[in-house]
Amino acid sequence: MTALDTAITAPTPVEPGAPAPDRRDAWRARLGTRAVTVLWALPVPVLLALLWDRGVAGGWTLPLGIQMQYLPTPVEVARRLGDLAVGGIIDDTYSGTLWLHLYASTLRVVQGFAFAAAVAIPLGIVMGRSRLVYRMLEPTINLIRPIPVTAWAPLSLLIIGFGDRSTIFLVFLAAVFSILLNTIAGVKAVPERLLEAAAMLGTRPAHTLYKVVLPAAVPNIVAGLRIALGLSWVILVVGETVGIRVGLGALITQAREQSRTDLIIAVMIVIGLAGFLADRLLMLLVRLLTGRRPLLP
């Protein structure tokens, strides 16, 4: 570890003679914290499920003309979800097909998201460090960025064709701008004192990039990645609507054509859970990659 790394990480001092922390106590403390977090998060979905059940039973009409009498009950959706996952409950053409559709959709999201990150992070670092490159690219990016991804869908079918690649392209478009803008903001926000400290310690400009600029910009980059990952799952349904037979979006399209509201809601829940787990996995990966290096504000 160099002197600059030592200056940045600034480990917490330990008083002489203080006992070493017990790993079991730390593990119990983390487990307790997570249990409390889960307990605090449970009442809201339980309350929503109760209101949903009562709304269907009572035929409630919500604002914007939402008529709950046409919705299935939570129990019916739970049965459909169980049948979709393991089969043997309803026994129709969709029984036990969840994992096939989930795998296909996850693969498309991962490819589009990874491609967007591979393009946006290096480009954002360059734009954040170079005024010339920023002035050249910023107007064009802000001209293209407001165009909805849904507007790209017909064009992607014409220039790419039906299949996985058009969906991956739409996921890429949905993800790339969030990562790019957050990376630029993170790089621009690097404190000058860190750059000056690196120069005083003799750090080469190229080394300053990955020893100072990149670690300091990590919080913004991670924020952009999390937003982009959520948008990737949002746009997935649009990308899988036409020309694809296997995928969660395709499953929703087929359910809509057959007016299977229980299947539509079950797949919506699956997409929400998949996006939630993907976000948690992303944060776990970031913690593994950053190790003990603190993420500077």
- Helical proportion, percent range: over 70%
Adjacency order of strands in the biggest sheet: 1-2
> What portion of residues belong to β-strands?
under 5%
Structure classification: mainly alpha
- The oligomerization state is single chain
How many helix segments?
12
What's the β-strand tally?
2
Mean pLDDT: 87
Major sheet description = 2 strands, antiparallel
- Helix-strand pattern, N to C? HHHEEHHHHHHHHH
Notes on the protein architecture:
The protein has 297 residues and is an all-alpha fold. The chain is 74% helix and 1% strand. It has a two-stranded antiparallel ribbon. The longest helix has 35 residues, at 205-239. The protein is globular, with a radius of gyration of 24 Å. The two termini are 22 Å apart. Mean pLDDT is 87; it is low at 1-12.
Record the SSE blueprint.
Layout lengths: L2 H7 L13 H19 L1 H16 L2 E2 L3 E2 L6 H13 L11 H32 L1 H14 L4 H11 L4 H25 L3 H9 L4 H35 L8 H10 L3 H30 L7
Antiparallel strand pairs: 1-2
What brief labels describe this structure?
297 residues, mainly alpha, two-stranded antiparallel sheet, disordered N terminus
Would you summarize the structure shown here?
With 297 residues, the chain is mainly α. Helices cover 74% and strands 1% of the residues.
